[in-house]
């Protein structure tokens, strides 16, 4: 389905689409089936200029808008949702450093993202998922630096990450730290919670911190402001998560349309049944509506206005649309839709997992509710 051109340079979209067709689509089913981190693809994407789209050129990025970033996430995820979330953890790390990091951290790490630095964002713990106001991972002052202890769960891209953003609680509240892989006391393991049925880009590992020593400058921004930083960063990644969901929905739509345009029943092609056409009409309208919302949210990120409102609405709507479209795609393809070697199971599993990862539907609605009450109080 060729939807309205993204509100950015069509040549740019064509470039990333071509990259995804050549470099990602041939491997998408294998990545999902074996649950492996697509390392070579992410390194090749960095070389092609797609890993640091919105970082300024002086920091090794492409210096482009968040609409360009949304187009990259959409096209990559049309090919593979797993590659999409591998990219989003890289984007989360560079965004928090760019927004809140001190000069030492920015100078050390930001240029590395454009060169292919692989990273993870470690917030969740066994007892803290949606609620991160307090954490069991603790950071205490240790001479001139910090000492960290605790365990993180569900860490996407953690099986390959070379760099971590880690949230830990200090005596004054949740704080954020930059942690390179390889430090003494930092390790990961695959637990019973690590394999998910969707968004399989390698096991979502548990990250263990045992007396991990960090220099003073590893603290990102102000001590105790970690929750505020996380919420700010999530506005960026939720918008791009919406773009990932749109990519998955479009892939499911196109694959289903291709099938029903050939498959025959009762002496005609399945697409010729009006009941089936209505399904496609609904899917098309829903995808386009959600897509408009995602690009609206991308513009809000560039403008710095109402970011929480648009990011939450975009992810909420796009994730639901992707799940609904993927489920309908299975339905219209009949038995082919549920075959293991057809891609529809992957689309459905990836779409559903993104109704939870990175902010569940309920938490997004809470954010929108808070936005509305804030508006009312101000009026
Ligand atoms: C595929 C995948 C990848 C992930 N990757 C990462 C990662 O890289 N880094 C990371 O830190 N975490 C990651 N996570 C964890 C993810 O962010 C959490 O799963 C998510 O925040 C929800 O937390 P929870 O699973 O503990 O659910 P809970 O917080 O226990 O919530 C359970 C249910 O209650 C609902 N609920 C909770 N609070 C409220 C409320 N106030 N109002 C209404 N309903 C509520 C939730 O929406 C959910 O439906 C990942 C998760 C998945 C599935």
Outline the structure in words.
This protein has three domains: 10-117, Butyryl-Coa Dehydrogenase, subunit A, domain 1 (Orthogonal Bundle), CATH 1.10.540; 120-226, Butyryl-CoA Dehydrogenase, subunit A, domain 2 (Beta Barrel), CATH 2.40.110; 234-378, Butyryl-CoA Dehydrogenase, subunit A, domain 3. The protein is 53% helix and 15% strand. It contains twelve helices and ten strands. It has helices at 10-23, 28-34, 39-47, 66-79, 81-100, 103-114, 226-260, 274-303, 307-332, 335-338, 344-353, 361-378, and strands spanning 119-122, 138-142, 145-155, 163-170, 173-180, 186-189, 205-214, 219-220, 264-265, 268-269. A hairpin with a 2-residue loop joins β4 and β5 (173-180). It is globular. The structure holds flavin-adenine dinucleotide. Flavin-adenine dinucleotide binds next to β1, β3 and α12.
Give a short summary of the structure:
53% of the residues lie in helices and 15% in strands.
Number of helices: 12
CATH fold naming of the largest domain: Butyryl-CoA Dehydrogenase, subunit A, domain 3
Order of helices and strands: HHHHHHEEEEEEEEHEEHHHHH
The portion of residues forming beta strands comes to: 5-15%
Shape: globular
Number of strands: 10
Number of domains: 3
What is the multimeric organization of the chains shown?
single chain
The CATH homology group name of the largest domain: Butyryl-CoA Dehydrogenase, subunit A, domain 3
| Largest sheet, strands/sense/barrel | 4 strands, mixed
User: For the largest beta sheet, what order do the strands appear in spatially?
Assistant: 1-4-5-8
Q: Which ligands does the model contain, each kind named once? A: flavin-adenine dinucleotide
Can you identify the CATH class of the largest domain?
Answer: Mainly Alpha
Query: What's the N-to-C terminus distance?
Result: 43 Å
Mean pLDDT score, rounded?
96
- Based on CA atoms alone, the radius of gyration comes out at 21 Å
CATH architectural label of the largest domain: Up-down Bundle
